[in-house]
Design goal:
Layout (H helix, E strand, L loop, with lengths): L1 E10 L2 E11 L4 E5 L6 H9 L6 E6 L2 E2 L5 H6 L2 E4 L11 H7 L6 H14 L1 H5 L10 H13 L5 E5 L7 H16 L3 E5 L3 H7 L2 E6 L2 E7 H6 L1 H7 L3
Parallel strand pairs: 3-8, 3-9, 6-7, 7-8
Antiparallel strand pairs: 1-2, 1-4, 4-5, 9-10
The protein binds adenosine-5'-triphosphate (ATP).
Adenosine-5'-triphosphate binds next to β2 and α1.
């Protein structure tokens, strides 16, 4: 279980997150929605160890992970897929996927590759294709697949639908839902609040770096304030 416990964090003198607390259980899909600049990406960066937390604590399975370096957080199997995907463009799909397994023994890698190809059959078909020639949606699948190759227990997705058509957005969000069925906790940050809430077990609404609402995804999707502020209804 991932527990973010009253953290504050920011950039230089700028404090962005204020006493922010969230929780994600194993096998749970949790969304964080909120306006541009609410601090969603900053929260993921703090969990990944890319920025420091100033107060509060982040724990994974009861052990403190705040204060660890990013590669140490990855070794605890808490893995983030960044918004810009960070693929190695000139390399093939398969090479990008195998790179995700850098923490692991080669013998296990083939099994994981097969699991990624089960989840995203298009990547199997295209495994020899150069990554940068794939569509945005397919590149997002490669980025998620690469994160899965590191055998995450907690997978964090930062705006996976950026630049994708509605159909591909559903493909990617449905993949996130399928991943949580395997017991992995998924923390999803999305601008597409309506779609994200509809597939989430639970969700949080972030405003100015603090949680202002939380509840089951479908319940929040029906909340009057959420509908007005984030769903344009
Ligand atoms: P978006 O959907 O726009 O990414 P967000 O909720 O993810 O929104 P953040 O990216 O976490 O928001 O940004 C929160 C605030 O932190 C914003 O005011 C942003 O300008 C600021 N910020 C983000 N990155 C930096 C940085 N590297 N240096 C200084 N300020 C930053």
């Amino acid at each position: 279980m991932l527990e973010v416990d009253k953290i504050t964090a920011g950039y230089g003198k700028l404090q962005i997150l204020h006493d922010l607390s969230i929780r994600v259980d194993a096998g749970e899909l949790v969304s964080v929605v909120g306006a541009n600049g609410a601090g969603k990406s900053t929260m993921l960066r703090a969990i990944s160890g890319l920025i420091e937390t100033r107060t509060g604590e982040i724990r994974y399975d009861g052990e403190k992970i705040s204060g660890l370096r990013p590669h140490q957080v990855v070794r605890r199997r808490v893995i983030q897929v960044s918004e810009d995907r960070d693929l190695f463009g000139p390399m093939t799909v398969e090479q990008n996927l195998v790179l995700g397994a850098w923490t692991r023994k080669r013998a296990e890698v083939d099994d994981d590759l097969a699991r990624v190809f089960d989840l995203f059959p298009i990547l199997k078909e295209r495994r020899k294709q150069i990554a940068q020639t794939m569509s945005g949606g397919q590149q997002q699948m490669v980025a998620i697949g690469r994160a899965l190759m590191a055998q995450p227990q907690m997978l964090m997705l930062d705006e996976p639908s950026t630049g994708l058509s509605p159909k591909l957005t559903w493909d990617v969000l449905n993949a996130a839902a399928a991943i949580r069925e395997t017991g992995i906790g998924v923390l999803l940050v999305e601008q597409n609040a309506a779609q994200a809430l509809s597939i989430s077990d639970r969700a949080y609404v972030l405003e100015s770096g603090s949680v202002v609402l939380e509840g089951p995804g479908r319940e929040l999707a029906g909340d009057e304030r959420v509908r007005k502020a984030y769903l344009g209804l």
